[in-house]
Write a structure and sequence with these properties.
By secondary structure, the chain is mainly alpha-helical. It has one domain (5-316). It is 78% helix and 0% strand. It has 13 helices and no strands. The protein has helices at residues 5-35, 38-59, 68-93, 98-105, 108-118, 127-153, 159-188, 194-215, 218-221, 226-253, 256-259, 262-278, 284-303. The two termini are 28 Å apart.
């Protein structure tokens, strides 16, 4: 618990950063995806973030060397976070509204809880946790109902309906990838400087993203516009550096269950920004799904309050960074 007014103010500021900047990344991803292919968005964002983090480490006099066994584990988690999750997220937002995407991704804490329940020695869900999971499933059905109804009414469905369904499938795979990476991150028990670990994770993903972008010809189709570059810069600085630093700070001073509240605040921010900037509107069924999903995530997170200790190693927790 904080012991001074200055520390309380820092905690409030850190929460504001995590709530707003991580919620606003969906809008920036939407803009970046209009100008650059998803692998190239992931590559440029990861490379810029890695360069900034490495600069911070060098300025602090912190060595970037890690044992070989730790290096490959960090690389695996990083690729799950920033390639299989982030690149698929960028791709999905080219097919569905950014607010819609944020709501699907908000299910990650529930997926983490389900994976932990299935693994040996994992934390089991209690009755409240399973109730939250059921609410989440109902929320997903409500969120997808307008698209499914339109596709059923039209037989095979129109092109936009197929795009929306494909975008939803991409989001589910992206969420599963991040949930898997989160569980692995906790079980690997990384014991190194958080910035060093982040540099290795994002650096490995950036290398893979750059390879994919080169092989798929993303550079030939890229439109290097001012808005696209500003979106990439925003994602790199505020989404990665500021958001992750604030998240790490909170994990060291606030119970993880309170920090986890970002999971049901970020979608609200994303929906509001999507409505303000891109004129995205949710159908009544989707609004109902929004309420159910946020309630579901809150129920699952709060159901684990007594069983989840606050770790002294922030890298063992779940660094959700979109």
């Amino acid at each position: 618990m904080p012991h001074s007014a200055r520390e309380q103010n820092r905690i409030v500021l850190a929460f504001a950063c995590v709530y707003f900047f991580w919620g606003s990344t969906y809008g920036a991803i939407h803009i970046a995806g209009l100008h650059l292919a998803p692998p190239l968005v992931g590559a440029t964002r990861s490379i810029i973030s890695t360069a900034l983090i490495c600069t911070i480490c060098l300025a602090r006099g912190v060595s970037l060397r890690v044992p070989a066994g730790t290096a490959w584990r960090l690389a695996l988690v990083g690729c799950l976070f920033m390639t299989f999750n982030n690149v698929l997220l960028v791709w999905a937002i080219t097919k569905v509204a950014s607010g819609f995407a944020a709501l699907v991704i908000a299910m990650i804490p529930i997926l983490v809880a389900l994976i932990e329940s299935a693994l040996p020695g994992g934390e089991r869900l209690n009755l409240r946790g399973w109730l939250g999971t059921l609410l989440g499933a109902l929320g997903m059905v409500a969120l997808l109902w307008p698209t499914l109804h339109a596709a059923t009414a039209a037989g095979a469905g129109g092109a936009q309906d197929r795009r929306s369904l494909f975008g939803f499938a991409l989001l589910v795979v992206a969420a599963l990838a991040f949930a898997t990476g989160s569980v692995l991150s906790r079980r690997f028990h990384f014991r190194i400087d958080p910035f060093v670990a982040t540099a290795w994770q994002i650096g490995a993903a950036g290398t893979l993203n750059l390879t994919i972008a080169t092989v798929t010809g993303s550079f030939r189709t890229a439109h290097w516009t001012r808005s696209g570059l500003l979106a990439i810069a925003y994602l790199s600085v505020f989404g990665s550096i500021v958001g992750l630093t604030a998240y790490t700070y909170l994990l060291q001073r606030v119970p993880v269950t309170k920090v986890s509240t970002y999971a049901f605040v970020n979608p609200i921010v994303a929906v509001l920004i999507g409505a303000a900037l891109f004129h995205e509107r949710l159908a009544p069924a989707e609004l109902a799904g929004t309420v159910l999903i946020i309630a579901a995530v809150a129920t699952v997170i709060l159901s684990r309050t007594s069983a989840t200790p606050v770790s002294s190693d922030p890298l063992q927790e779940i660094p959700i960074e979109e």
